[in-house]
Amino acid sequence: MSKKKRFGISEALTRGLSETIHVVEHHSGMFRNVVLPLSRIELDPDNPRKLIIDLADIKQGIRPDDPDHQRKQEELERLKELAHTIQANGVINPVVVYKRGELYRVVAGERRCLAAILAGKQEIDARIFNEKPKEFELKLIQWTENTAREDLTLGERMGNVREIIREYQNQKGSVEINASLLKNMMGLSLSQASYYLAVLNAPEDVQFQIQNGNIRNLDKAALIAGIESPEIRKQAIAACINGSSIKGLRSIINQQRVLKKAKLVLQTSPRGRHAAKINMGATNNIEVIKKIINCVITQMQLDHHATAIFSQTNWTDFRQVTQAFRKLIEILEFKVVA
Amino acid sequence: MEIIAFVNNKGGVGKTTCSKLMAEYLSKKKKSRTLCIDFDPQCNFSHQYLHMEIDPAAPEGLMPPIHPDYNPNDEDDQNWDGRSSIAEIFYGQGVIPYPTYVESLDIAPGHAEKLLAAESVRRSEVVDKVHKQLAYFLNSSDVQAAYDAVVIDTAPSKGPLTISVIKAATHIIIPSVMEEQPVQGIYGMLQLWMQESLVREKSRPLRLIGILPNMFKQTRLHKDILKSLQDNLAIGKYVLPVKFSQRIVFAEIDAADSNPRSIFDFPEQHVAKTEAEEVCNHLAERIFA
């Protein structure tokens, strides 16, 4: 006789049932996903993304006498592109809002809302927070939504970081912000966090250029912010505005390092073979050698016979200049010993 | 006021029988002022308490009888045809519940034609015109003041009518036969429960009281499927520890001329009555805890 048949529910159904229960037990009550009429949506004036165009401009058109007409017109054109895709495919990710009186204030998704209105939509998918998110969480949501964006200027991003830090300090007391704290606070990499920190503490001239949109790159801004000498910083800022690469900026900074090192006590490594000679070093700047030779001739009041060789040197030829320099060393060795 | 709904999109699992037993238990045993609502166009629940009439406009459907309080000579009733169903909420009309043979048990009956019409509104209008209407009605202050409990029987579907019940309910119970197809119906209802839970405000959650095994027979099929649900970590805690057995008396009591008319009027010690009390008592304790 065959074995008694056993019954049960299918694996797929079991999985479906468990997953559904899991979702309810872990996610209910935090927020709700709804379809919101666009007429009930308002923008957040404190959102760090400073779109200059607003709801009225979208609904009634930009007034021709608007002082920002030009910029708003440009923004409108960009929104129209988004509106076009919304018309075709709808809004893929729900916007994030919280209820504020009769209206819903946008936490994230300003452009999507405006573009959906442009696309002639009446409603938009939204995720409603049941309560107004705490200021810190609010800023963080806006931050995370915004960091993924390309069109945010460095100045806007820095404003965002400052607000997050301010909220953090409001909540936790005024703790000192270091790179690893910033990293944990905003989910950045450590190097990104230290760049942001450097730019936060940047001297005023750098801040000014960031606000003006002249310095747009975080890495470059952090590099320039680290330059102590005001003159060299000025040079670097100018170079950056003129489109210098990060490598170009580094070489400007290296100059600063050379000068800085000159002031320091020389430190040599005790390791390696015992040195019996002095290495004179090398340079690709002929003027340096010419200067040394001239100085020595003048200083030592060398006679004409000894220095004749220098007047015959071709000062554009590296080999000849090298020979001339060696000759000078020889003369000096002879003279100093004598 | 607690709003209890029996839901399962598989038909024939005993939603109406469970609704009836629960409503009568609450009114007879708990002395709660209870309102029955029949949200199924088939109107079986209504038929338990009222002599539903064939609708001349739609011969396949039922409509409520003339209301006992209707007086065609009364000026107040001039604009009323004397019938009132729960479907009036979709047409901006007041709902006038009918008394039943059970004291403190009223019913807002179904109306086949009107309920079906509400379900067929355009997709874009369904949210405003259907989904929210039952919740508006039940949250109105006169309904809240008049009743302690509402028991809703639903249609075997996942459509707009059932969604509007889910939106209005405070508690849902999923009766199911321990067989493959009805258990799939549980999945459909859990989906609705999930969707509603995600949009509900924290202050008024939709509580799933649980899966109620119904028409249970001591066969290998029923026992194995019940056990596989109970043994699952996630599902197990939603399988109720009580169940209704397959008993012909639960069906017999549905017949119009049965005597007594309620299972709770059976003699003490009657096995079906004891079981009904045990199950309903358990549900009530969970709901009114």
- Give me the strand/helix succession of chain A: HEEHHEEHEHHHHHHHHHHH
In terms of per-residue confidence, which ranges of chain A show pLDDT below 50 for 5 or more consecutive residues?
Answer: none
Radius of gyration of chain A: 34 Å
Q: Tell me the span between the first and last alpha carbons of chain A.
A: 122 Å
Helix content percent band of chain B: 25-40%
H-E order of chain B:
EHEHEEEEHHHHEHEHEHHHH
Q: What multimeric state do the chains show?
A: heterodimer
Low-pLDDT residue spans of chain B: none
- Largest sheet data of chain A: 5 strands, mixed
Topology diagram in text:
The complex is a heterodimer of chains A (338) and B (289).
Chain A: H1 11-27, E1 31-37, E2 41-42, H2 55-60, H3 69-89, E3 95-100, E4 103-108, H4 110-118, E5 123-129, H5 135-147, H6 154-172, H7 179-186, H8 190-200, H9 204-211, H10 218-225, H11 230-241, H12 246-263, H13 286-300, H14 304-311, H15 318-337
Parallel strand pairs in A: 2-4, 3-5
Antiparallel strand pairs in A: 1-5, 3-4
Helix pairs in contact in A: 3-4, 5-6, 7-8, 8-10, 10-12, 11-12, 13-15
Chain B: E1 2-6, H1 15-29, E2 34-38, H2 44-49, E3 53-55, E4 58-63, E5 98-99, E6 105-108, H3 112-119, H4 126-131, H5 133-139, H6 141-146, E7 149-153, H7 160-168, E8 171-176, H8 180-199, E9 207-213, H9 220-231, H10 233-236, H11 248-252, H12 271-287
Parallel strand pairs in B: 1-7, 1-8, 2-6, 2-7, 8-9
Antiparallel strand pairs in B: 3-4, 5-6
Helix pairs in contact in B: 1-12, 5-7
Task: Explain the overall architecture.
The complex is a heterodimer of chains A (338) and B (289). By secondary structure, chain A is an alpha/beta fold. Chain A contains 15 helices and 5 strands. Chain A has helices at 11-27, 55-60, 69-89, 110-118, 135-147, 154-172, 179-186, 190-200, 204-211, 218-225, 230-241, 246-263, 286-300, 304-311, 318-337; strands at 31-37, 41-42, 95-100, 103-108, 123-129. In chain A, strands 1-5-3-4-2 form a 5-stranded mixed sheet. In chain A, α8 packs across α10 (218-225), α10 (218-225) packs parallel to α12 (246-263) and α11 runs antiparallel to α12 (246-263). Chain A is elongated, with a radius of gyration of 34 Å. Chain A starts with 10 loop residues before the first helix and ends with a helix. The model of chain A has no long low-confidence stretch (mean pLDDT 81). Chain B is 40% helix and 15% strand. In chain B, α1 crosses α12 (271-287) and α5 packs parallel to α7 (160-168). Chain B has helices spanning 15-29, 44-49, 112-119, 126-131, 133-139, 141-146, 160-168, 180-199, 220-231, 233-236, 248-252, 271-287; strands at residues 2-6, 34-38, 53-55, 58-63, 98-99, 105-108, 149-153, 171-176, 207-213. In chain B, a hairpin with a 5-residue loop joins β5 (98-99) and β6 (105-108). Chain B is globular. Chain B is of the alpha/beta class. In chain B, the strands form 2 sheets. In chain B, strands 5-6-2-7-1-8-9 form a 7-stranded mixed sheet, with helices on both faces. In chain B, strands 3-4 form a two-stranded antiparallel ribbon. Classes of the chains: A alpha/beta (338), B alpha/beta (289). Chains A and B meet through α1 and β1 of A and α8, α9 and α10 of B.
